[in-house]
Amino acid sequence: MQTEYRIKSLQEKMREHKLPAALLFYSRDVFYYTGTSQPAYLAVLPQEYFLFVKSGFEFARRESFLPRERIKAERRLENIFRELSSQLASSRTIGTELDILTVEALNKFNLIFSGYEFTNISPLILDQRKTKDATEIESIKGRLRRGRHGPPSGSGDLTKRLY
């Protein structure tokens, strides 16, 4: 799946499930959709999305394949809520990764997003992530070949030192 298509595919799944918003925080999911490993929240609406970077904003802008106007420096969940709530029509449901959200974090979400209900979006994300396109398959094959045959020649004397 091409990286620029990943968020669009999630948005399509959200529309199919009548889910008006998603707030992702799990680093693997954020990386999958944005290309950055910096701590961040990814807010996804049916027609819109934003990456709210908690720290390492400049790194995130360099790492991410998202358009720059979609990346914002914001660490406060309260401010993210204000921005999201203005775009949530009448719906009061937000998808997030409930299967890995701690009780403490859920309590914080419930306090900040008072009046909203959270639903587990992880099954949609995992279903999408398990489907690989030709580019991802070739990348995996390449990593497997390199692992099987060791490092490329000229990459140092590591193998000589091991034996």
Keywords:
two-stranded parallel sheet; single chain; 163 residues; Creatine Amidinohydrolase, Chain A, domain 1; alpha/beta; 8 helices
How would you describe the overall organization of this protein?
The chain is an alpha/beta fold. Helices cover 48% and strands 15% of the residues. Strands 1-2-3-4 form a four-stranded mixed beta sheet, covered by helices on one side. The chain has a two-stranded parallel sheet with strand order 5-6. The protein starts with a helix and ends with a helix. 21% of the residues are buried. Mean pLDDT is 87; it is low at 158-163.
- Work out the radius of gyration: 19 Å
The total strand number stands at 6
Q: What's the pLDDT, averaged over the residues?
A: 87
Segments where pLDDT lies below 50 for 5+ residues?
Answer: 158-163
**What amount of the residues lies in strands?**
5-15%
Structural class: alpha/beta
Q: How helical, in percent, are the residues?
A: 40-55%
Number of domains: 1
- CATH superfamily grouping: Creatinase/prolidase N-terminal domain
Order of helices and strands: HEHEEHEHEHEHHH
Main sheet, how many strands, which sense, barrel? 4 strands, mixed
Number of helices: 8
What gap, in angstroms, lies between the N and C termini? Answer: 41 Å
What's the arrangement of secondary structure elements?
Blueprint: H1 3-16, E1 22-24, H2 27-34, E2 40-44, E3 49-53, H3 57-63, E4 71-73, H4 77-85, E5 93-96, H5 103-112, E6 117-120, H6 122-130, H7 134-149, H8 158-162
Parallel strand pairs: 3-4, 5-6
Antiparallel strand pairs: 1-2, 2-3
